[in-house]
Every structure is written in structure tokens, then in C-alpha cells.
Amino acid sequence: MKKWMKSLTAVMVAVSLIGGASSAVEAKSNLKGNIVINGSSALLPFTLQAASEFKKENPKVKISASAAGSITGPQSVRKGIADIGAVDWDASKNVPGFNKFDGLVANPVAVTVFTAVANPNVGVNSLTTKQLQDIFSGKVTNWKEVGGSDAKIVVVNRKFGSGTRVNFQQKALDGKEFMNKGDNYKEVGSSGDMKTTIETTPNAIGYIDLPYVTSKMKALSINGVAPTEKNVLNGSYKVWGIGYYMTKGQPTGATKAFIEYIQSSKFQNGSLKKLKFIPLSAVK
Amino acid sequence: MIDMNPSTNSKAPAELGQSFGKTSGSKFDRKARLRWSNQLFRMICIGSALFVCLVLLCILVLMLRTGVLTFSNVSLTEFFFSTNWDPENEHYGALTFILGTLALTSLTMLISIPISVIIAVFLAEMTPKWLRNLLRPVLDLLVGIPSVVYGFLGLTLLIPWLRNLSGHDLADGLLAASIVLTIMVLPTISRISDDAISAVPNKYRDAAYALGANRFQTVFRVVLPAARSGIMYAVILGMARAIGETMAVVMVIGNTAQLPNSLFTPTAVLTSNIVMQISSVEFDSTWNYGLYMMGFILLAISLLMIVAVRILQKKGGRYS
Amino acid sequence: MSVKKPAHPTLAYSFGKRRGASVLLDRLFTGLVWGTGIIVILFIVGLLFLLLEKGLPQLSWNFLYGLPSEIEEGGGIGPALFNSFYVLIISLIVSIPIGIAAGIYLAEFAPNNKLIEVVRICVEGLSSVPSIIFGLFGIALFVEFFEIGLTILGAAISLAFLNLPVLTRVTEESIRAVPVELRNASFALGSTHLQTIRRVLLPVAMNGIMTGICLTAGRAFGESAVIILTAGVSTSGEMWDFNLLSPGGTLAVHLWYVQSEAIVPDAQEIAQKTTAVLIIVALLINIVFRVPLWLNERKNKA
Q: Do A186 and B256 touch (CB under 8 A)?
């Protein structure tokens, strides 16, 4: 047991040392070359990819990325605890449910396409904007009312504050409000949960970013237009949005270099495209 | 916390000094060293206890400080007695979540306590040694599986199964959540109870058997009452984890702010609502304050439940 | 221990009464316990099989050691796995001494009054605080107050806070469960309080304390909410990065990320393999913590 006491003291010393070390470092934590990114989880895959590529070219820059939720991005930036706030809408303007953030600059980084999806057992392939509005507001509760078989509609929604939800509401439902109660209504926290729920729940309808659509679910056409990259590029499919990196004022230093790297045609037409996002230049 | 230091300081040296002064009179430095290390050790222990209290206090202050701001915009009666949670339209009634948490925790405990205690008895009293040595690490292992894994299994296996069983279109709800929680707290409760039962001295069992008791009587009349304090602690710990668990619950409860009319109706509890919304609302909004307040209520509920379990235990203690 | 009298006089009488019924009860009880035991064992085996079946056969060194990939298949979990251990070890270094010392205080030194009773209830209550609130606390402390950003250090200490209450109470309960005779015998031999604690109480209570450490280590290893908030989802992207201020996405966080947001085509496979790795590591942790216990037991026998 003597050893135990010794290790206890050793541990105590180590703890105090670590404590000392952290207080020594905190003075120079605003070093150039340290980028903290927080915000939307839907933009995280390409943020992580860009970060690892960027770090190869600039080994001295440290990038830490987290994804607590879209609105966390601009809020953390405003509070000064993150350099970049990833968000799925332009947070320098008002959107339904969220006020604008003054003093933040929106740097567009990628185009994401959103689509309504349903379980494969649903017989419907296309819905009109009106039908979507009725389904998601709870007015229509049976698939036969929109041309399907006689089965109750299970509505799966993303949680409030999801960037996908904001975009889908604005662009697919024309700003019409979602239902928020009902026996056949549930909310999920992430794209992955949405994917799993739609795949495993018969008669379910939801919406998701295009890259997550799998063979075990059905992407629905809206007003007869299928959600494909081609239809986005030719302007017939309207349900897409731009993802932004919010910064406090114009970006500087390493942050600026990182954003420029993401906006460069090398990244946009390379890795970004491989991740099934659409390059910014393609839609303008 | 502070007022106890003098009392312990004055009591212990007397007790220690006497026992040592007589045995090793000549070796003064040994005596001094022992006394010094005793003192130091006590200080470390007191310091640690104070530190734990400090962390607790910080968390309480963090939640309460932000939480009370809710009531500058929302009346107490609305927050506690309304079931209408619709912050987008300025309705902040948290009753649904409070009731949901109470119902979910009770249901989970109802399922998990009997099973866990039986498993603990099984492990401590009945299994051969090799099986026990195999099973204990496996049970501990289940605690280490991330809650997202349990949630994912619940979402992909349990809910479709419950859906077929119940005939509902969407089987998310209290039952699914409590089954997932039961699986999560079962190892905690059974392992700590198992330790408590194993710690009961063998002579108690021998005495009971010598009096002609059979195994059932020994376990129920002697071993379990003797291990009661430990088992109660295991239950409290399991309950605390059930109240506070988020990541798994959020995947199977449905996250809809409504009072459920069956065990299969999507609903929400305090934790699931906090975890779903706290990262998606603005920092300085009544909504955010309300969520912090809900965190505080959560803590209050668990404290109440702990006190209740302790009172029950004291009452039960009278006749053993 | 609360019970000092092994059997009440009236109990001794009741043992003899209604022999037939009690034999039947005994049989029923034995059957019930064995039945439940076997069902739960089968359930656990089934659960483990389900979790390991798809992931385990595909595990390879490249996966364990490799860097994660967002686009191409075949990404690994190297840095996340490393971070998991690193965060776990730091958080245990912080929480074990403090937790055990606080537990010893509550069991041995604390006066028996209302205040301590309240403290005890609070400590138990603290263990029910959802981990996300510890995460928020971690943000407030490390990101906003100390301004060190999303770091391994912040995550490890927040995790330690999360585990402190459990460790404290488990230690206290285990020490209390040590029979009074042992303690008295030690005092009678003239040992000081510290010597009694070190040589008698802790070794005897070690079994329970180890259970507590295993449970907290397991929980720390599987925790994701705290880490997402305090250490981020990303890793520093290289192996063996011992910098305490690096971003510290752990394996559980990686699993969460892969399951909820990753676009990479083999996401499901990665999730399965990651789950298998998590389970194996959790098992290893349990075994590692148990080895000293077994050695101790052997030594005591000899």
C-alpha cells in the first residue's frame, strides 16, 4: 500500500504541474495560426476534409472543429470563442426563427441541396409545394389524400435550429410553419438519425441533405422536379441553400487563408464535389 | 464545511498521540512524522471533499444564475403548470417534461430494480466462482459502451419490434426509452449491489444456516437487509443515471412536446428537451434561460427522489 | 454497516415455521434467480454478438492506426483512438485521487451531522446531472474563462468532474462496508488513523473501489456529449500528439459523428468497426484494472 500512497503523491504533483502549465499557456492562446470552428454539423464533413488538406500545406496552423449546432456558430463567433461559425443560412440577415447577427461577415463556402425523402414503401413519388405544406403542417394525415395508399403519414422533422430545417421551411414550404404535436410526429437531432428513421419507419416522410440520400429511402420530386444536381444547375429545382462561414468582421490571418482555401477552385471542384456538395461557382 | 475542521483536528491527535506516545517513546521523529503525515492526509481528504462541493456549487450557480432569468418574462405558474411548450410563439410551459421525467424514471426503476437485485444475488450467492469472474467484467463492460450505440440499437431494432407489437405507426415513447435505459442502468445497479452483498461477512450466512434457514430465507432475511445500505446506493446511482441520461433517450423518445396518451406516443423529457434545443437557441433568449431552468429542475427532481429513497430505507430499516 | 445483529430472535423462530411452504419458496426463488441470471447472460451475449458480429472480422491494423478520411473509403481511427486513451488517463489522474480522498473524508473524518448528510445527498444528486450540463460547465470554464479553446485538457477535466461524485460515493460506501472489527483491531494494535486507512480499510474496500473506477472509466470512455462541447469533433490529424491543448475528438465522438453526419460511403462499416473497437477497449480497461485486485487476492491467500 506504500506504493499506492507514492503514486497518489506523484499524481497530485502531476495535477498541479498540469494546472500550472495550462495557466502559462492561456496567456498566449490568441496566437496566430489557431482556428476554432464551431456550428452546423451538416457542413462538418467538408470542413474536416478542408482542415486536413489545409494542415498539410500549413503545418503550423492548428484547426479544431466542433459542431454543436448551426446557431452555435455565429453565437460563438460573436462571443469570441470561435473564429469561424459554420451556418447553413446567411446569419447576417433575418430568417424565420432567428434574428440577424450584426457585425458578422458571411463568407459563402458551399451549396447544399435539400430534398424531401420517404420510406420506400410509400407509393408517392412526387408532391406539390401545397401538398408538402399540408403534410408538414399536419393538415393532411393520410397518404391516400395525396395519391398514395391508405396509410397514416408519419412525419419526421429535424429539431428547431437545424440549418436543414430552416432551409427546407424557407424554400420547400415557402415559409409555412411546421406542426409540433401529434401521435405520428417526431423530431430527430441529426441527419444520421433522420436517415435511420426514414429507412426503418414505414410510411414516414422527412427531409435531408442530398448527400445523405441512400438506396433504402426515396427522394421525392417537388412539383415534378427531381432533386438532382443537374436540375439545380439548370435552375428548375429550387430547394437548395448556401452554407456560410461567419467571421467577426473581415477574416484575417490564418482564418482568411483557410476560407480562401475552401473557396479556391481546387477545393471547390475537387474534394467538395466528391463530398456531393455543389461548387459555389456552378450556381451563380 | 468549515466549522468541522476544528472539531476533527482536536479529536484525532488526542486519540493518535496517546496510542503512540506509549509504544515508541524514544523515537520522537517517527512520532512527529506519523503525526505530520496523519495531518497532511486529513487535509488532503478535506480539501478533496471541499473541491467536490465546489464543483457542485459551481454547476448549481451556473444553472440557477441563468435559469432564474426565465421568470422575468414567464410567470412561475405558466412554467410549472402549463403543458404548452411552444417557445416560437412565446409559450413556456415545462410541465410535460417534468411529468415525462418522473414517469420515465419510475418506469425504468420499476423494470430495472428487481432484475438488477436478482442478478446481484445470482452473482454474489449462487454462481460458481469461474462464472462470477467471467460475468463481472462483462457487466462492467456494458457500462463502457457509448450511449449512442444503445440509442442506435433502440432506433433500429427495438422500435421496429415495438411497432409490430403495439400496432402503432410510430412506437417512439416512454416504453422504448425506459427499456433502453433499463439496459443501460442494469450493469450499474447490479454490480454495486453485487459488491454490497459480497461484503456481507460470511458469518452472518453461517449463523442463518446454522439456525436452520434455507437459502431463500438467508438471502431475504439476513443478506439483503445487511447489504441494504449498499443496494440503496446502487439504486440511487442507477436512478441518477436514468434521470440524467440524454444521448440514448433522445434517439427513441420522439422529442415531441406533448403529454403522451399511451406508452407508445412520442413525448419528451427534461434531458431530451435540453439536449435537443440548448445548442440551437440564442444565448440571451428566454428560451435559453428556460432550458437552464429545466436543468436546475432536473437536479431538484433527482435530489427529491434521492431523499425519498433514503426515507424509505430508514422506514424499512426499523424492522430488520 | 447498519446491521450488527445478524438475526433477530423472532427470525430464528420463523425459520422453523411452515417448513413445507418455505422449502417451496426456496425452490421457486432459486429457480427464479437462475432463470433471470441465464436470461440476462443470454441477452448480454446476444447484445455483444450483435455489436461485434459485423465489425470484429473486418478490423485491421490500418483501421486502428490510420488517419480518418472524409471522402474515400478505408479511413482509420488512429488519432481518435489515441485521444480516447489520452483523455481517459488524464481524467482518471484528476478524478481518482480527489474522488477517493473525498470518499475517505465522508466515510472516516466527517462528523455525523445534518450538513454532511446534505452534502452526501448533493453529491448523489450531482451524479444525475446530465452530461451535457457538465459540457456547458466545461465551456464556461475552459473556453470562456481560461480561453484555451477546444482542448484535450478541458475535456479531460470536465470528464473528471462528471465522474467525481460517483467515485466519491462508491469509495465511501466501500469503506463503510468494512466490518467494524477490522477497524477496531487495527486501532487496538496501536496504528494511527492514517495507518488504519492505508493498511486495513483501503485494501479491504479495494474491491468496491475498483468497481467504481471501472464504472467511471467505462463511462468516461463512452461519453460523447461532454467531449463534443469541450474538445470538439476534430482531432489534430496526426498520431501521438501529446499536446494537451490539441483538439481532442475521441473514439465515442468519432462514432457519434460517423453515425450522425459523415458522408463517406463506408460510414456504416466504420461505425460497426468503431463499436467493436470500443467494446474491446472497454473490456481491456476492465481487465487492466482488475489485475491488481487479483494479485492482491492471491497475495492475501498465500
A: yes
